[in-house]
């Protein structure tokens, strides 16, 4: 599949198709700014989750409790309307001898959020990447987001949140561990 670049001229054409004058002072620089913004908003395609999760074993072999980072900001765009969705994620795991720096969990969420997404797929992608790379005993991910495609068009339901979760490894059969993770994830 060849990749055809979307240029500033294409953004100018979009503005014209909306009935705007792309040369008026308030819009003259908009095509450049929008092109730059979309490059940032979709930069997750250029990131390798495996590289983000380089693990280390120093000090981790003794630790056998949940590690949870919550309130990780999520900013993404739905693949159906290119509309933003945003909220927070909680990511946790039960190590099996390997840990990652805590900021790596935030970077992992950001990597998958900076792609055109559906929240359900993004949630499982985060969980699977953590499970594949760290090989922990368990992984839990909870994502809570507001979707502008629902709030600003169609059904128009401001303030509704969509919550998705992925529970892998021991979080599936172990009700006590699952309950502990969900309690830690709760606001």
UniProtKB/TrEMBL annotation:
Pfam families: GTP_cyclohydroI (PF01227). GO terms for biological process: one-carbon metabolic process; tetrahydrobiopterin biosynthetic process; tetrahydrofolate biosynthetic process. Gene3D superfamilies: 1.10.286.10, 3.30.1130.10. It comes from the Bacteria. Zn(2+) binds at residues 78, 81, 149. Its EC number is 3.5.4.16. It catalyses: GTP + H2O = 7,8-dihydroneopterin 3'-triphosphate + formate + H(+). Pathway: Cofactor biosynthesis; 7,8-dihydroneopterin triphosphate biosynthesis; 7,8-dihydroneopterin triphosphate from GTP: step 1/1. Residues 8-185 form the GTP cyclohydrolase I domain. Keywords: GTP-binding, Hydrolase, Metal-binding, Nucleotide-binding, One-carbon metabolism, Zinc. It is an enzyme of class 3 (hydrolase). Signal peptide: none annotated. Homopolymer. Belongs to the GTP cyclohydrolase I family. This is GTP cyclohydrolase 1. It comes from Rugamonas fusca.
